[in-house]
Write a structure and sequence with these properties.
With 211 residues, the protein is of the alpha+beta class. The chain has a domain of 138 residues: Immunoglobulin-like, CATH 2.60.40. It is built from two helices and ten strands, in the order αββαββββββββ. Strand 3 and strand 4 form a beta hairpin. The chain is globular, with a radius of gyration of 44 Å. It starts with a helix and ends in a 9-residue tail after the last strand.
Length: 211
């Protein structure tokens, strides 16, 4: 083989290696880089540590009610003194009457001449709404054994409450379960240091159902 031919083959080999290296270099420069997906989610710690500063604090309900009623009583049809009372004065109006014993700090409440169906089961409670600082008197009337009678009667409701001398806020509500629901029928202030008093709840006279 001639020297010229050998030189030509060597030059061709060198040129081929240069082109291969160039292609390999370009291929590597265009290869996509490995990336972490932007929306990749990290696994949550199965036992996260909650800082004490973020722990919920124990709270007392804002509308906490305290039961304060004592000796609740509801009369039979006709009131507590049905046989000895003066019917005319009793039937003329519905009253909330109260008296206060300063030595025992006991407030006695009497809701007199409450007109309700003759067949009812009754419950009388008093609670102290600490949020509003109000004594809430609730009268509950519901059907007796699930049914009512076709007549109406008058009832008296009484209870005692321990209160310190001074002025208190009082709310009287009546709940007829099969009627219009719970209704506040009177609210206001009572100065128990006056020892006794009364409030007219309804001045509508009763002649037919008052007996």
């Amino acid at each position: 083989m001639s020297l010229l031919h050998t030189s030509f083959l060597s030059a061709a080999a060198i040129l081929s290696l240069g082109l291969f290296a160039c292609v390999t270099s370009n291929s590597n420069s265009n290869a996509p880089e490995a990336t972490t997906p932007e929306n990749e989610l990290e696994l949550a710690d199965p036992n996260p540590h909650v800082s004490d500063s973020h722990a919920p604090e124990a709270t007392t309900p804002e509308n906490e009610l305290e039961s304060v009623g004592q000796n609740p009583r509801v009369s039979e049809c006709g009131g507590f003194n049905a046989k000895t009372r003066d019917d005319d004065s009793y039937c003329d109006a519905e009253f909330l009457r109260w008296s206060y014993n300063e030595s025992s700090q006991t407030l006695s409440l009497l809701n007199q001449r409450v007109l309700l169906n003759c067949c009812g089961e009754h419950k009388f409670t008093v609670t102290h709404d600490r949020t509003r600082d109000v004594y809430v008197v609730d009268e509950l009337d519901q059907p007796k054994n699930g049914s009512r009678c076709r007549c109406m009667c008058t009832y008296d409701w009484s209870t005692d409450v321990s209160v310190a001398p001074g002025t208190i806020n009082l709310e009287l509500a009546r709940h007829v379960s099969d009627g219009d629901g719970r209704q506040v029928i009177w609210s206001g202030k009572i100065d128990v240091t006056e020892t006794q008093g009364e409030v007219v709840i309804s001045d509508r006279p009763l002649k037919v159902f008052c007996h």
